Amino acid sequence: MIDSVRLRRALGHYPTGVVVIASLADGEPHGFTVNSFTSVSLDPPIVSFCAAHTSTTWPYIRTAGAFTISMLSAGQERVCQSFAKKGADRFSGVGWTVNGSGHPAITGAVAWIDCVLDSCHLVGDHELVLARVIDLTTNDDAGDDPLVFHRGRLGRVLL
């Protein structure tokens, strides 16, 4: 039997990027922080992430069926923490705009990926989400590295 604390500690040694998944549902913005984001396929373009069963935000985004993924830049630790809080107005004090796909895009992110939901699979205590990429934009003005989560801390890539 693998203890969840030991598993989390071991997996924490592997650095991940941090994104915000956001959608407009019933005219209201909904979003949450994810560090389980990854590319799955280039042809067709598909990405994935995991959403906890306990998330109260994911059901709104799943129902909307489309969303924008904002890849946070180093220096956006406060944005990451805001979108990780439960029961808070996550968009309060955070710069964002409604992009061409009609969903919230976080200002200052290094890239934005517009997606439509492809499929969800129940896996343990999460849903594995597969999403088809319909558009994307990089922010050459960000001039910053992506935000990285490693061993319980947020930071930047040091090369």
TrEMBL record:
| Record bears the keyword Oxidoreductase | yes
**Which Gene3D superfamilies does its entry note?**
Electron Transport, Fmn-binding Protein, Chain A
* Superkingdom in the source lineage: Bacteria
Pfam name, any one: Flavin_Reduct
Tell me which UniProt keywords the record has, alphabetically: Oxidoreductase
Q: Where is the Flavin reductase like domain?
A: 11-156
Q: What InterPro entries does the annotation carry?
A: Flavin_Rdtase-like_dom, NADH-dep_flavin_reductase, Split_barrel_FMN-bd
Keyword Oxidoreductase (UniProt): yes
Any one GO molecular function term: riboflavin reductase (NADPH) activity
- Tell me the protein family, please: Belongs to the non-flavoprotein flavin reductase family.
This chain's protein is named Flavin reductase
